[in-house]
Amino acid sequence: MCMNYADLENNLGEIDKARAIYTFASQFADAQYDTDFWSKWLEFEVRHGNPRTFQEMLQNNRTDDKIDIAQKADIPSKLKVVETNKDKHRHRDTELDTLEKIKRQRLG
User: Fold this and answer.
1) Which one of 2, 64, 66, 79 has the fewest CB atoms closer than 10 angstroms to its CB?
2) pTM of structure
């Protein structure tokens, strides 16, 4: 249920809300049995996260399997993708700020 809600928020562009839902749901998800949940959250962080949020995701996985998941997920290459996505988001945020300034100038 939480995964569906996180997907909904993600599709609506509410990345922080989706992350909060994943964080909440992680207290109920065991890495040994809920591999779909952890894989989906991993994919989410690769697309939208940064190294800090990625590390927080791994810390939320309370079992000894978190190292195993990190090894299977090929963490170093994923972190490169996260850094690249972070740069893209910075560029996008700059573009949005510029558009917002133009909009304010036209209205003001």
Assistant:
1) 64
2) 0.56
